[in-house]
Automatic annotation (TrEMBL):
Transmembrane segments: none
Organism this protein belongs to: Natronospira elongata
PANTHER family in alphabetical order: ABC TRANSPORTER ATP-BINDING PROTEIN
Protein name: ABC transporter ATP-binding protein
UniProt KW Nucleotide-binding keyword: yes
């Protein structure tokens, strides 16, 4: 019988209570497939770093089971850890080591043989090759962050965790970072990132997990989530202002704005086709002249805020 490949990450009933009694994670269940880009979204203190740190073996769980590439992270720690690279939120700075030595040493920490071609490749991908002989303490903040990524990639991990990779970085580095992420995914690397830049999760991630107060509220394909929860708004600019929405349009979620010169119609994607044509016909029947129409779609950010409001 052919055995199926285990998921990149399997988390079952994971809970974490820190010393002192604070429960940072409760009953988290999550599977992440190979080659996915998965975004973990949540406000400050939601438990994202705790989850990532447990998955990388830096923080111990209180209960639950975790496998990385099928390896239990406690019983089979080395095999599990070998598969994982972590770019932490905090930058390790002020090193007197050179960029090259730091990255090469990181590879050695995983018991791997020295491989200059791999280290050179990683440094080139991150535009660090020219700086390879510089001491880390002499680099700019952005360059130091690149070194952190290079360190995480030095042992060629199959799964890369990026803890808020774009917080406080400039546009150029952010762009480079996302190009790098796409390139890694192309090579089959699984990417798990946390971000406060929700539009980026929307653009980059195939699936999103929303976490708050240590609970994973939902895990959904990004497009699915947008479709399901993403409300749309149609703004109807009127030829002439009106004082109130005519009675015959009471069945629609309409509101008047801008002193009665425009109507807002809230609708969900699935009602788009029939709803709008019907509404426009009825407006016409009510003698309302339409000047212009435009639509707005709620972003993942809006959805996220709505979710937190509903479930708190
Ligand atoms: N070592 C610790 N001891 C006690 N409590 C901790 C410890 N580390 C984290 N916490 C608490 O656990 C909660 C979750 O923290 P965590 O860093 O996982 O959140 P986060 O979602 O990553 O937040 P941020 O977006 O701010 O990084 C926070 O309330 C934090 O104060």
């Amino acid at each position: 019988m052919k055995q199926s490949t285990p998921p990149a990450i399997e988390v079952k009933d994971l809970s974490k209570t820190y010393e002192g009694g604070f429960q940072a994670l409760s009953e988290v269940n999550l599977n992440i497939e190979h080659g996915e880009i998965f975004a973990l979204l949540g406000p400050n203190g939601a438990g994202k770093t705790t989850l990532i740190s447990i998955l990388c073996g830096l923080v111990t769980r209180s209960s639950g089971e975790i496998r990385i590439g099928g390896h239990d992270i406690i019983r089979d720690y080395r095999s599990a850890r070998q598969l994982v690279g972590l770019v932490p939120q905090e930058l390790a700075t002020d090193s007197f080591e050179s960029v090259w030595d730091t990255v090469s040493f990181s590879r050695g920490l995983f018991g791997l043989k020295r491989n200059d071609a791999v280290v050179a490749g990683v440094l080139r991908d991150l535009s660090l090759y020219d700086k390879r002989d510089k001491q880390i303490r002499t680099l700019s903040g952005g360059m130091k962050r690149r070194v952190m990524i290079a360190k995480a990639l030095a042992h060629e991990p199959r799964i890369l965790f990026l803890d808020e990779p774009t917080a406080g970085v400039d546009v150029e580095l952010r762009q480079d970072m996302w190009n790098l992420v796409r390139g890694l995914q192309h090579n089959g690397v699984t990417i798990i990132l946390t971000t406060h830049y929700i539009e980026e999760a929307e653009q980059m991630a195939e699936r999103v997990g929303v976490i708050n107060h240590g609970r994973l509220l939902l895990v959904e394909e990004t497009s699915q989530l947008m479709r399901k929860l993403g409300r749309k708004q149609l703004t109807i600019e009127l030829g002439q202002s009106i004082k109130q929405v005519p009675d015959q349009l009471n069945g629609y979620r309409l509101s008047l704005i801008n002193d009665g010169s425009a109507l807002i119609y809230d609708y969900a994607d699935e009602f788009k086709e029939s709803g709008i044509a019907d509404l426009l016909r009825r407006l016409n029947q009510a003698g309302i002249v339409i000047n212009d129409l435009h639509t707005d779609q709620s972003s993942l950010e809006d959805i996220f805020l709505d979710l937190l409001k509903d479930r708190q």
